[in-house]
Amino acid sequence: MKNRRLFFSGVLAVVFALAIFFGVRQIAPQSNDPVEVMRIAGQAAGAVGGIGLALMLCGFFIAPKPRRR
Q1: Per the confidence metrics, is the pTM higher than 0.85?
Q2: What is the DSSP letter of 63?
Q3: pLDDT digit of tens for each residue in the chain (69 aa)?
Q4: For residue 35, which of 20, 45, 25, 22 has the smallest C-alpha distance?
């Protein structure tokens, strides 16, 4: 793993995606149209999760910039 910051920010994004999905899943039955609410939540969670997976993959291939002294 070359860039730990990218990897762990990707892990954090995937955790946020799971939190979005399961958080909305708790409140969806109270909605007038729970199917539509879950569709929108799934799209949002999928987008955040996809970005997180891309960041995790980039963490293996992109080296961080060297530090200035």
Answers
A1: yes
A2: P
A3: 899 999 999 999 999 999 999 999 999 999 999 999 999 999 999 999 999 999 999 999 998 888 888
A4: 25
